[in-house]
């Protein structure tokens, strides 16, 4: 097939590479403009841009897709289909109708569950046991189009948003290649979504990243995994601002107040929660390196009875 591809992060780059390796013609790649990144906050290219340049694909980085001249440029390509994966820009309805077969999206959830911007993180936060990839035909709505293909995977108990992004990136790459092959063979029947079963995966907000120790330890553990690698859950104890990157749950009952350090153990710092306790295994002081709790405590004196602040 002759394809226009639109995507930005590594999740999308995996799909682009798979499509090219499968023999499809990548007529044009769209990706977001370079953005500031890293400690120096210098403009950096997206993973999709780097791959497009490496493979010699035509590349555009428009700030939006609303310009009539861009529509004319896309129309002139005479693409069979546009594949969209974590692009980050809204596609106007007029663009959806440009390719012969329209536009399809690689979405990282089992639609209609978790439509929206942060399906991977919201699935972990909700305690979902599985997630997956849905290939859907794009329409006017937000992730509301008919389903072309769906594949599921189990969410492991230690999966973070980072590890799940990587797994789903590889699954998404395989799924889009499979879906296009089935489309070419006329073997796909588009299935409308059940709107009554839909849930919305809103983007992560900064206030959510502050640990509320009144919550159950299980819920905080999910949040730590969902906010890893970005932006990281955080809390403050004895004036030290700390990010928490890895935890486990201690189901022993405790009478201490939420946020209070119950024990300092070889396996981590044990903190009381609304229910049960949380063992902090890997932490990071603001501006410092990620350290196992035992290493962190070599330079910071924390003891039983000290209490982490909890948002009101």
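^ Assign residues to that structure.
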């Amino acid at each position: 097939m002759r394809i226009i591809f639109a995507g930005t992060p590594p999740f999308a780059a995996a799909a682009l590479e798979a499509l090219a390796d499968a023999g499809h013609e990548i007529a044009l790649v769209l990706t977001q403009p370079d953005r500031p990144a890293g400690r120096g906050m210098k403009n950096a290219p997206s993973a999709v841009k780097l791959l497009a340049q490496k493979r010699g694909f035509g590349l555009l980085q428009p700030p939006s897709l609303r310009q009539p001249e861009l529509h004319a440029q896309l129309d002139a390509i005479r693409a069979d289909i546009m594949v969209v994966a974590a692009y980050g820009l809204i596609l106007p309805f007029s663009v959806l109708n440009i390719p012969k077969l329209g536009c399809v999206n690689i979405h990282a959830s089992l639609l209609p569950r978790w439509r929206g911007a942060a399906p991977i993180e919201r699935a972990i936060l909700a305690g979902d046991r599985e997630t997956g990839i849905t290939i859907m035909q794009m329409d006017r709505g937000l992730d509301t189009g008919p389903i072309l293909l769906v594949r599921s995977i189990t969410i492991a108990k230690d999966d973070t948003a980072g590890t799940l992004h990587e797994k789903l990136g590889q699954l998404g790459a395989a799924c889009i290649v499979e879906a296009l092959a089935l489309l070419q063979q006329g073997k796909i029947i588009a299935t409308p979504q059940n709107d009554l079963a839909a849930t919305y995966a809103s983007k992560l907000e900064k206030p959510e990243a502050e640990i509320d120790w009144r919550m159950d330890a299980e819920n905080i553990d999910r949040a730590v995994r969902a906010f890893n690698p970005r932006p990281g859950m955080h809390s403050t104890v004895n004036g030290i601002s700390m990010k928490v990157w890895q935890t486990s749950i201690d189901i022993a009952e405790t009478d201490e107040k939420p946020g209070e350090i119950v024990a300092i153990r070889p396996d981590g710092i044990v903190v009381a929660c609304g229910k049960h306790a949380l063992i902090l295994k890997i932490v990071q002081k603001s501006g410092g390196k990620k350290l196992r709790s035992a290493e962190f405590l070599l330079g910071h004196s924390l003891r039983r009875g000290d209490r982490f602040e909890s948002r009101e």
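The domain at 206-299 is CATH 3.10.25.10 (Methionyl-tRNA Fmet Formyltransferase; Chain A, domain 2).
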